[in-house]
Amino acid sequence: MSGISKIKVIGVAAVVRFVIVVGSRLMGFRRLQFGKCCFIGPKPFLEQIKAAVHRLADEDQIIWDSIRSQPFLFWYHRSGLTDNRIANAFTIPEGFLAWGAEGLISRIIYCYFLTSRLGRDELPGSELHLQHNQVMTRTREWLIQHEYPQDLQKPFERIALIG
Fold first, then answer.
1. CA distance 53 to 81
2. Domains in the chain: how many in total?
3. pLDDT (tens digit per residue) in 15-54
4. Strand partners for 89
5. DSSP SS3 for 84
6. Closest by alpha carbon to 70, among 18, 109, 32, 35?
7. Model pTM?
8. Quick one: angle between helices 150-160 and 125-145, nearest 10?
């Protein structure tokens, strides 16, 4: 990526993050910070996040240390699923909350593997598909290794088999 392209990406990322933070404040959401990693949402959501990240730290301290050392921005959304690798900004929809800490951790782990594998670079469609399948497979393997419920592993299993 050229120097000018990097500047554009950083600029777009800053605008996206600004809009998320301001919009969330207008909705009355609160903020919870762990190192550089930030979670935004209503108080009950943040309480669940606290419990989930403590569990994640117990289960995989190396990954948790890596996550909190990066400028991830996770925010609560009732139903929308957004993955913005350029801004490192990701929603956590209510569907993940229904699974409790395991659902939240699975979403966080997936986003971590996604950004670790794909970064901010634009990829051609076929390469993006291949890389995304590897992210799905890695997420599923992590969930299996940590003995998460099979129903929580299934979405990653199905997509990982495509291609």
1. 20
2. 1
3. 777 777 777 777 788 999 999 999 999 999 999 999 999 9
4. 73, 84
5. strand
6. 35
7. 0.84
8. 160
End-to-end C-alpha distance for the chain, whole angstroms: 27
Reported as a single tens digit per residue, the pLDDT across 103-132 is 999 999 999 999 988 766 665 566 666 777
Token digits of residue 58: 């117990």
**How many beta carbons lie within 10 A of that of residue 105, not counting itself?**
25
Distance CA 140, CA 9 (A): 30
User: Between 150-160 and 101-118, two packed helices, what is the crossing angle to 10 degrees?
Assistant: 30
Of 150, 74, 78, which is closest to residue 109 (Cα–Cα)?
74
Sole residue written with tokens 């490192």: 88
The two tokens of residue 16 are: 């996206």
The domain containing residue 91 runs over which residues?
A: 3-160
**Alpha-carbon span 94 to 13, nearest angstrom:** 25
CA–CA separation, 102 and 56 (whole Å)? 9
- Three-class SS state of 65: helix
